[in-house]
Write a structure and sequence with these properties.
Layout: H1 12-19, H2 23-31, H3 36-43, H4 47-74
Length: 90
């Protein structure tokens, strides 16, 4: 069974070029639940650099979520999870 490619907010090729490491393998290690210190030891990436990469990835995801929320609000859709009814009995 083939996995479908999702649009990713993270440009891993750009980050890999910027930090001169394989960011895709770092992401996979985080998904597997490995600790930052453990990843730093087997990849040879400095712990500070590893945290910078992680913060850039988190920031990219946060920006994507905010953009999706803005688009939903402009389309007239409300977030169902946090929707408040102002007049529930009418």
């Amino acid at each position: 069974m083939k996995k479908t490619q999702r649009h990713s907010a993270v440009d891993d090729k750009r980050l890999s070029k910027k930090y001169r490491t394989n960011v895709n393998s770092l992401i996979n290690a985080w998904k597997k639940g490995k600790a930052d210190v453990e990843i730093a030891s087997f990849t040879g990436v400095d712990l500070f650099t590893l945290r910078q990469i992680k913060s850039e990835i988190e920031l990219a995801h946060r920006r994507e979520r905010l953009e999706n929320k803005r688009q939903a609000l402009t389309m007239g859709q409300s977030n169902k999870q946090h929707h408040t009814f102002l007049r529930p009995l009418t």
